[in-house]
Amino acid sequence: MVAWKGLLHAYREWLPITERTPMVTLCEGNTPLIPAPNLSAKLGLDIHLKFEGLNPTGSFKDRGMVLAVAKAVEDGSRAVICASTGNTSASAAAYAARLGLRSIVLIPDGKIAYGKLAQAMMYGAEIVPVQGNFDQALDLVRSISQEHPITLVNSVNPFRIEGQKTAAFEVCEQLGDAPDYLALPVGNAGNITAYYKGFSEYRAAGHVNFVPKMLGFEAEGAAAIVRGEPIPEPETLATAIRIGNPASWNGAVQAAQESGGVIDSVTDDEILAAYKLLAREEGVFCEPASAASLAGLIKRRASGVLLPGARVVCVLTGNGLKDSDIAIQASALELHSIPATQEAVLQMILQTKGE
Ligand code: F0G
Q1: What is the pLDDT of residues 98-122, one digit of tens each?
Q2: Residue ranges of the Rhodanese domain (predicted)?
């Protein structure tokens, strides 16, 4: 078996890499495409889960961040900055640590999952909680990076999109062809833009015959693209996609229109139901925002717009362990301790079984 050397190495010819680019890696990418037989049977589709939560910092952000931070170093930068609902900040902080850069992260005060905050802290980021939402924090870092020698590593940095497009290549390689549909959550809309770019490039190079129909799902309380206007105060329990004015709005619309797909929305209840289904039916624990992809698939299948038996890849963007608070709330289990005796344990499990 050949050891995996990370994305910059694996996809060098597809990326803007020069002799001066540091070939850094935390062994990001090469994530599994997990078949989902139980959900497939339930929905009458052929579903595969691209589990991006198995990247080194637990989300798809590592794909774009490895390139964005490497290019920052190549350009002589000593610091990176981003606004984040959590995952971008964790990833930026990890690669900055690895390459010896300062990382400054602006987060919406009180609205990021604790696991993500813990990561940014551990990797040594300078964390700035802002009394505002993601969109306001993004406006701030955009203007600060224009006026100061600090590299912006949000997905408005084109190297982020370049790195993230590699996920589309992997999906095609793992399936042996492009899927009929690709379903994914939409927040700032960088990822759907990146997947579409990746599939289009692979198709242009003759590696696959077609580009999948791109199905992007926003949370209903933050569904700016679906509504056709920015949402000043977006709300959803899926904090990762609590974004009211997506920076790559046009990229998302283009991906959906040109591929024959759609941008649609799902409610928080639909997200929670899909989140539980993934864990209980398939043994895959993703974060709530990630489950918007399956929630959207269920919604569209129910309304009869997906062809039966179609091959679908659902992108699960982040790891469930990042947001254990929501997992525990969603499970609604009350745990009562019992004496440490065989009798007490047996009584408990026999009782549970009988319920
Ligand atoms: N899923 C997860 C787990 C995310 O963290 C994000 C975005 C998305 C989906 C949406 O991706 O923005 O490319 O449309 N998180 C960003 C962050 C905003 O700051 O971590 P997108």
Answers
A1: 999 999 999 999 889 999 999 999 9
A2: 80-123
